[in-house]
């Protein structure tokens, strides 16, 4: 393979991660760049400046996705390297940022080598991947692939009551450009965010696909009452109903075993006072499984649980789907390319499913897509202690570089 | 009995309730006058003005308790009629306010009749009875009876992070006066806040005492992690632990039956996001029973539950007592006076325990104390739909007037 000896610059890659990590940095480590907030705007400004410094043509589309294009010898479908730079409220430096910044590092390496590719290479940062401020998650890539209309997306209201369209305008990222018309292949380098690679001492994960995701919001309505004088039999306690549902989710997820996971990450009582029986509770249930059939089993268990508790606690429970994605399989040829390339580079590899949702699963709707995973220390992510070893970051970026060359160079490579 | 035909003015009493109810009024009904907030300050200003208009000598003590004194023929221990005007965040018009405003109505009735009592009659409004903003509840009366030092009380920090002493200063109610040195008898008229009187169609409750109260705050610390990629076996989910404890409290309270009640009214997760396993949960547990032994049984069950869940969910749980009051018995002679007087006035009566804490239980430490209950529609309180029929308000105030006369007039009444 031509350019097989080409490598990214590890020091420069780490510097990229550290510099973006200073934007929205939290005391004690980690970052908070919730989508379309002032700190995320600063992250976007930084990214756009870096893209321009590398000579990329920057395009912002109407949902705020950022594309930086390096021209190819011909105008054809783009090889796209992407991820996101928004984070959860207590996020780490690597989730999302790595895929975008490694894309920049690939561009920098191609520039240094004066390497002209046949196809354009585009680095992409998609809007609101985390879904921590606007539901659903993976919103920017969903709109990009046509899975949700722009008008609907702009009308989404954030957890802090702001309309997405106005928040985009407010930070100056309601663009008028369009992203690449056609994508030849999409690669996303990402930290695993789970413990498998580290446990098995594997350096590179070739990702088979993404587990299915089901997010439900429950609004439980009871009756507020004095906590001292209202006999138990006369109560309609929304807080107790919420607790029993959350505990029940924990129990049925454990009983299912296997790859099933379930989380009640958010739960808010009103009025939330020590001596008042809660009148309402709003809670979320996050269920995931790589097997669609099993995910549906979990959803059915949730439905039965809700009906049981609503009856027993004499409360009403309104449910709303915040997100529902079936499991996604990545392109077999790209999985094979990633796995084979990593082994040629001397890395140990493993194929595995992703436990988290990623923009790649949206891109898979319109183009061959696949992901490269590198190990997460202790499997921790969405946490300020999220960490990946510098060597692993560099390994992943080198795999990204090589698979990009394979897709973007002419098939026979003789003109390069 | 002399003055046995004397009655309060029902229209004027309702007007008192309605006028105070406009201060801190919520859309849709009810009021929010959390202790020492700007809206409660306005309520205090209104009360002080009403007291002065009735010719009372107003004294504000260093914890902000308000006393309005009507002189007696001699300087002796005072007959005190009191309660509180602070409310929970979504409170009603009657809880607390009735006891204070009926006290004013008693004074107005005495004034109209040019009735000179032997002992002074004092109307009292105690600071922070609800405990919704500062723990413990019944704080002002607790300090008044010497159960908590002023210095400690002033250092208490509110749920919104403010020091009590500074909040008192800010609203101008850090007084320098002292309340009555000696209390001959304390009467508190209050809505039942429970369903018993209404269910049994009884007009006046003679309160036997107050059930014991145990408030505990739990701080649960786990580890935040990605909700999709962290296998269940590797989680330390503070939210799941909190839910299991809240559901467990609900279960053991039901299994104990009898008069035991238990409530998890407040529970807050951090970071409280759909796709992040909660790192911390802070929750409160409110346990009450009129029997001290059974209350201790409930507390022991809570302790066992906490230890079990901490172990099973691999979280740490820190516990802090927010309040602990043993059951209180009221003065038998005053209970008999209330019950007998009400029957003489033609009302049906019943003796019962209070399910809620009241300032009267603090006063009972230093003086004979008792309470008069009137029915609560549907037993609802700490809720904007809290309601008591006008006739019941008037009945309760007339009982208050008559028992006040019995205590404050000379024993033989011949000089009146």
TrEMBL record, chains A, B:
Cofactor: Zn(2+)
Keyword Zinc: yes
Name listed for the protein in its UniProt record: Zn-dependent hydrolase
Binding site residues for Zn(2+) 1: 84, 95, 190
Pfam families membership: Peptidase_M20
InterPro entries: Amidase_Cbmase, Bact_exopeptidase_dim_dom, Peptidase_M20
Keywords (A to Z) from UniProt: Hydrolase, Metal-binding, Zinc
Listed Gene3D superfamilies: 3.30.70.360, Zn peptidases
Entry GO MF terms: hydrolase activity, acting on carbon-nitrogen (but not peptide) bonds, in linear amidines; metal ion binding
Positions contributing to Zn(2+) 2 binding: 95, 130, 382
Highest taxon of the lineage: Bacteria
Record-stated family: Belongs to the peptidase M20 family.
Record text on cofactor binding: Binds 2 Zn(2+) ions per subunit.
